[in-house]
Amino acid sequence: MEIWLNPACSTCRTAVAELDAAGVDYTVRRYLDDPPTPAELGDVVERLGLEPWDVARAKEAREEGIDLPEDAAHRADWLAALAAHPRAIQRPIITAADGTTVVARDGESLGRVIAAEG
Fold first, then answer.
1. What family does the database annotate (predicted)?
2. Which secondary-structure segment (H or E) carries 70?
3. Topology of the domain covering 2-117
């Protein structure tokens, strides 16, 4: 299991505490220090069943100057922009060994990825 997190984020810290409590082995990726490539982001949004703009933090995207149409023609542009400005990516993103991937901003999503490791 891998968790993309920002250690300054309380939601990320909560997710790590829940993973620890569940006894799940995981690898931490501080995605602000080690940004994902556009290809990695593309894989993640595909596993999530979402589009890149769906995993963008609206306020941070605006602050980073990401102002792109939300359509298929601009999908690659979104991936490149989010890779260049990882602060605009929702967090935490957790991927289980079986490929189950969630944006773990709520207990239900976090529970789903923990169950996938069980």
1. Belongs to the ArsC family.
2. none
3. Glutaredoxin (3.40.30)
> Which is the catalytic residue, given 3, 5, 8, 9?
9
**Residue 89: band (very low, low, confident or very high) from pLDDT cuts 50, 70, 90:** very high
The domain ranges of the chain are 2-117
Reduced to 3 states (helix: H, G, I; strand: E, B; else coil), residue 108 is helix
Query: What token pair was written down for 4?
Result: 């993309």
Q: Which helix (H) or strand (E) holds 43?
A: helix 38-48
Chain center to CA of 64:
17
Instruction: Write down the pLDDT at residue 117.
Output: 83
Distance of alpha carbon 93 from alpha carbon 31, whole angstroms: 10
| Per-residue pLDDT tens digits for 26-45 | 999 999 999 999 999 999 99
Average pLDDT estimate for 70-80: 98
**Mean per-residue pLDDT for 57-86?**
97
Instruction: Decide if 9 is catalytic.
Output: yes
Q: How far apart are the first and last CA of the chain?
A: 11
